[in-house]
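Dear all,

This email documents one entry for the complex benchmark we are building for the journal club exercise. For each entry we list the sequence lines for every component of the assembly. Then comes the predicted three-dimensional structure of the complex as a token string, followed by one or two observations. Please use this as the template for your own entries, and keep the labels exactly as they appear.
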Amino acid sequence: MIRVVIPFHLRLLAKITGEVELEVQPPVTQRTVLDALEARYPMLRGTIRDHVTQIRRPFLRLYACEQDLSHESPDTPLPERVASGAEPYLVIGAIAGG
Amino acid sequence: MTAVRVLVGTKKGAFVITGDGKRQKWNVSGPHFGGWEIYHLKGSPVDPNRIFASQSSGWFGQVISRSDDGGQTWTTPGSNPEDLKTPEGFPKGESNKFVYDTEPPSGKPLTTHQFYDGTQKPWVFKRVWHLEPSLTDPDAVYAGVEDAALFRSADGGKTWKEVAALRGHGTGPKWSPGAGGMGLHSIVQDPKNPKRMYIAISAAGCFRTDDGGASWKAINKGLKSPYLPEETPEVGFCVHRIAIHPSKPDVLYMQLHQGGGIYRSDNAGDLWQEVNGNLPTDFGFPIDVHAHEPSTIFAVPMDPNLRVPPEGKLRAYRSRTGGNDWEPLTAGLPQENCYINVLREAMAVDQLDECGIYFGTTGGQVYCSPDSGNHWHPIVRDLPGVLSVEVQTLA
């Protein structure tokens, strides 16, 4: 089971409380995890990755196991501790604005 | 018993405010979509309980939401559990997918517009500024977007398709952004002619279709813009707002950028005349028309340099003659130390026998006059900055 944490505003949009748990078939990559997240919550499509280009929105960062994965290939396997569910995959919004 | 429902979009969420027919007692519901910028909400004239909302965020992009119960609950069209049961299959989550048409006539080679520095930039979708539900079909709704284009949904907001011929007009390389971006902000449907519609873009100008969107005509003759190099350009005008009265849809009113001011056209936009008359300034954003008096219009002039009320006095102005002769409306509005602004989407009227006028401010107040502008009171005082106000009159 993959654990995913998304920002407050997206939890509000998807009517989610707390972490999301997803079944993801291997390989467990950023792309397959986000695909599974959007399949469960279609309203999130276009809010993390651009609808057409699938590129990460610029004010969001992607983390796991204390590593910034934002610039990694979306097809690189995620750390084993994410794949095993020991650590969550984190979608973080920029801490900015008023 | 009649009532009104005021739909308020703010920088940090939406508020649904209901009032009785006297418009003295109010109930505030919200914030809905807390933390999201709500550029606009508007209800369907066919089904008033169906309300469309445009949420956007610098972090998460565009979202479209819809309520089918008068704003009590909201969903993103096409992303609900019940959609799983439809023949369309698994929800695609495309209610926020606005993709420019790249086919002729709108797309190639018309793929760029003028940027602030005079260079050409490609069209890039940023947000939905305005949602205009159809006058006849509860599933049909138009969206005016930044970068400027017109989209239409025929399925209640689940999917969107560009009304491509507008950008196909051919003047796109001369369209440019105003300070707030290059947005299509006004969509006015002619209630007597379903084939006719007006739109306005900042900063391009007004356009009219007489064939249901298949072709468009620039309607900017008579407008003045001293900041443009040509004396009478076809496009390039920073229109702030246009409005009509449904009984006289050939009469258009406009608030244009400073150097222009208030304009009226008596022939569906073919020719405009300036009607600033005795207004204190020519600058402002919203303009609207009395519900029962087609020649009575309202504006809120602002200092053109500071974009705040002149002399710190918040004054709406009313003309009962379609412009030129204006009277200040001050009763109940702050007449000292007021330095807010009233944005282009933030004024509306209700349809009650004694027409109510409403406007919201960047300071978070929403003011109501239940007597055509003679007296005003704040419905709320401390919302986030108000981006839009719409009013529904409920039976």
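Observations: Chain B has a mean pLDDT of 94. DSSP finds no helices and 29 strands in chain B.
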